[in-house]
Amino acid sequence: MCGNAVIDGHYGTWKNGSGSVFDKLNKLKVGDSIYVVDDKGSTITFVITKIKTYTKNESAPDVFSASDAKAHLNLVTCQGVWNSTLKTYSNRLVIFADKK
Question: What is the pLDDT of residue 21?
Fold first, then answer.
């Protein structure tokens, strides 16, 4: 397994008051582990190597590709100021993690 897997998830409260899948993504730190269970029940461990915030329209090619032939997991969610007119946040939070 090599390359980048990218998972994008919501941040913020839904209309029914429930939280979103990535509400606590901003609590993660470099060095923390992320565990993914595959369809066979095996657990794959990724270690966070970098956390970066991008503006809403900023180019972020490093989120989607890597040239080191290793396996990466990148998690993406919204962050920043909510714009109610555009119904979007001002920034994107990206958690970069490498397979252990």
Answer: 85
